[in-house]
């Protein structure tokens, strides 16, 4: 009779250190791609909100003009940019008071810091207007910053000067200048 040794070798079912490191590296790579994609999607969402905010502000300014025959004054001689209303300064509250019948709350940039201006490429909305004493037109312009460059800066034809573009004349800019003017009759 044969004696059968029923003892079988115990196979090691654990992972080796190399296998664990490879798996961790793969997970890290996938996580970094996902994180980058999510950040780009968030930036695009904030930029879309910026465009919507500016359109709402322009609509309120046009309604104000139709009722008052001029755009709200931005000639407040204080702040980072004298004569401007910036959404991160008290000058924005003054503009809010003027536009309250047309827009319940003035928008602020979704990534707005406590200080700075668009000239510093800081995410803040800025408004400037001038009356007929500067030229024969009532006009305003707004400057804002995007996170992802998209399209040229539309610019604004201020008084008799050439087109004013804070973002320059490149094909893809992050700085945008928009405005409107009404010729006084």
Inertia-based shape: elongated
Give the assembly state of these chains. Answer: single chain
Low-confidence stretches: none
The end-to-end span amounts to 121 Å
- Continuous helix count: 2
H/E element sequence: HEHEEEEE
Q: What is the fold's blueprint, element by element?
A:
Elements (H helix, E strand, L loop, with lengths): L16 H52 L16 E2 L4 H9 L26 E5 L6 E9 L10 E2 L5 E2 L10 E9 L2
Antiparallel strand pairs: 1-2, 2-3, 3-6, 4-5
Concise account of the structure shown:
With 185 residues, the chain is of the alpha+beta class. Helix content is 33%, strand content 16%. It is found in: Membrane.
Structure, described:
The protein has 185 residues and is an alpha+beta fold. The chain has one domain (17-183). 33% of the residues lie in helices and 16% in strands. It has 2 helices and 6 strands, in the order H-E-H-E-E-E-E-E. It has helices spanning 17-68, 91-99; strands at 85-86, 126-130, 137-145, 156-157, 163-164, 175-183. It has a 4-stranded antiparallel sheet with strand order 1-2-3-6. It starts with 16 loop residues before the first helix and ends with a strand. The chain crosses the membrane at residues 20-41. Its main location: membrane. Pfam families: N_methyl.
List keywords for this structure.
2 helices, elongated, alpha+beta, 6 strands
